[in-house]
UniProtKB/TrEMBL annotation:
Name under which the protein is recorded: Cation-transporting ATPase
InterPro entries xrefs: ATPase_P-typ_TM_dom_sf (IPR023298), ATPase_P-typ_transduc_dom_A_sf (IPR008250), ATPase_P-type_domA (IPR059000)
Domain P-type ATPase A span(s) in chain numbering: 106-202
EC nos: 3.6.3.8
Amino acid sequence: MDKVNLERYSCDINVGLNKNQLQSRIDDNLINAFDNGKTKTYKQIFKDNIFTLFNLINIVLVCLLVSVGSFKNTLFIFIAVINTIIGVIQEIRAKRLLDNLSVIVSNKVSVIREKEKKEIDVQELVLDDIMILKTGNQICADSKVLNGKLEVNESLVTGESDIIIKNKGDFLYSGSFVVSGEAFVRVENIGKDNYANKIANDAKISKKT
């Protein structure tokens, strides 16, 4: 659905989404379900980077040059080897990032719906849900602080090692952890649009340079 024309719900933190609003989000598939898929194995990474058409052509050229005694002209093969090594390193880093992001995903989250506090699966979150975040919780969807104060560790998703203080109106990145505090927050992005999922997807499709 086009976010520009999407109706947003600004619910009271003590009320949350009502039954009709929730059903509307479900009908529009605005739920927090997204599968990043399985990452490649290390064996697949090495195989995909070594056994390529480009490398095959280079090997054939080297063999032809060696056969005619033109050893100086075979130096280009070192560039191909370096390129392959860089590709392997990048994909291994991407795999580790993807694996880390998938391992830390929480299973449950506290929300306010129809004036009641409920525990639901992370995948059941919908856009504009009111979440309650406390010390130790993982932020499982991009959200905005509506009430309260949090100290957040964003190191996994932003690389920032310092603890970040989040007050009313501040944005929270999915994949981060609440170090201390408590707050009511509104879900701003879900599924593939979440910051953590975008990082994971970008890492998956990263190419050799």
